[in-house]
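Researcher: Re-running this chain for the archive, since the previous output was lost when a drive failed. Same request as before.
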Amino acid sequence: MQLTWTWLAVPWFLCALVLVAATLSATLVRGDRVLRIGTVGAGIGTMPWAVCSGLAACSPDAAQATLLLRLGNGPVALVGPGLLLVLLGVAGQLERHRWLARIAGAVGVTLTALCWLTPWTVDGVHELSSGIYYPDAAPLTAFHFSQLAIWMGIGLFIARRSVLGGGERRRLVRMFVGVLALGAVGITDMLLVYDIAGSYPIAWLPAMLAAGTAMYYVLRTDLLRPQGFDRFAAIEVLGFVTAIVIVSIIVWALPGAEPVMYALIAGLVWLGAIVVTWIVRGDDVAPVAQEAALGDLIASLGDVETEPAVADALTVLWRGLGIEVRATWVVTGAGELTEVHTGARRTWDPELAVWLAARGEVLAAGDLGTMRLGKLRVKIEALLGPAALVVPLVDRDTLVGLVEADRASALREDERGLVSESARAAARAFTYVSLSRAAAKERETAREVEIAEAMRLQASASRDDELGRWIVAAEYRTAAHTTGAGWSTMLLPDGRLAVLVTEAQAHGVAAALATAAVTGAFAAAVTTPDPLGLDEVLTSLRASVDGVMRGGEPVAAFVALVDAEAKTVTWATAGHPGGAVVGPIADLGAVPLASSQGTPPKVTLLGGGGDRLGASLVTATRGQVAFPPDMLLVIASSAVRGEDEQIWERALRERSPAGIRLASSLVDLANRRGTQAEDLLAVVVRQR
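Model: Regenerated structure tokens:
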């Protein structure tokens, strides 16, 4: 190649240096891959044009200048598609218009090949008045050089119609409108191509300004979603440059060698450069910012017992990165999220949980523009909402929650590492808290079952007791979670019978413990050699029940003192649905069930009636009724009585001839009504 130095080539070489700097800046900044490809592609497409135009200006031979201009102008058709890719990526429209980017790329490649292989773009050259050669017009010349304006115009139209954030849209549109304006200035060189006017091309000036502007946006803004310096790309660039230098030295040292020898040497050098680059790169280990703070977080989460505490620890750590947490959600069911501080609930598509768990990375609003999301795009955009970041909390490939946060700029690589590692630690902590709560609930359930089973073993079977002149029959069947239905009978020293029947307004362990407290207080109250009245019993019980109520578990009770000498029942009911005196019955226990003849037994209700529990023992309803030997005292739980008082009285009248077997008869009748959600208890007292 014969070249003659001329200062007219200096602007082209300066333009090439600026283009190299802009391209290298996009190459060495770790960020969004698609945006980097578009930016680097536009720079690489322009560099051959600047270099070859400078060499053509130094060429004294028209044929040589033609070859150089064909070589340099071919990749110019790829600049427009590269900038279109950047526009669509930043505007979040790449996936929707991926077909358009493919068409632009195909057109650019085709025009590049036609420029290199045919005279349809650069037919020849003519000498300008300034003394340099410039391309002649050809059939595809105008279309080839208009690719920049065509694809940038389409990209700007789509970007302006997108839902991109206002500030970023204005910055983006302003940059590319400026580039388009510079391109319009450079297009005036077409007057030189068609030999209309002019003596020296000026396209290098707008190209250099555009390259400088692009370098500013790459280094100073979030155009590429920068994450920091890409040292691995730097190693690869260094290997590439080293290989070129080595090949150039070998070619210079071996003048006149065969082209095959040059190709073999270049291939071996390039292979060696690749191997060395891979060795130097080593393992790709993501850096983590503030490792000491991350270690402190992991250590502190070992003692955390609640979800809000985990969320607060994460918030404090991230605030050091300029990240403000908007909300922290935990997965509480299929398609349901719960905010750990406010308790607010929201529904979402479980398909998103699968996608986020599989991805397991920080999701930024800016990342969506170039991601392939398919049918999930609308759902993911709705999930982000006004938040700039969504961080999934994944533990063992399972999504346990997510964090919504804001940050003004893109996360750098080491900051992403810190967020990812701390999110993983928080996910483990949330799992631990959830498992601890489940274990506590299991322990509570096991304890509840144990107490219910003990109560069932104690009283589930029919029990007939003879206490002095009295026969007491009880039938009890516990529910899955006991409601604390219980009874106790004590024979007083003077021959009277003290009866207590309870029912707690709670379930499970709480009900069992409350009932045990009242039953114990009853036993203590009646175990005395002194004459005992109903008021003394109620006073003792009231003190115990007040203590239970302070724990939040009120107890209903029915208390009776049955006196054979006075033939009376003195009773009090506090919250309990009450009892009943049934009779007279001519021959108790001798008559078959529901086969009595003559006048039906009379039913006298003791208490409020119905199946609803009322006030506690603090307020008790008292009374006294006659209780001759041919009468039955019946006390039943709410579930046995039912809601209809008339049906209850009819059942007592019809089944009272069963005598002492009335207790089991009433419980069997209640059990046939349906699912047993409450304890079933019936107590029957009669004289022997």
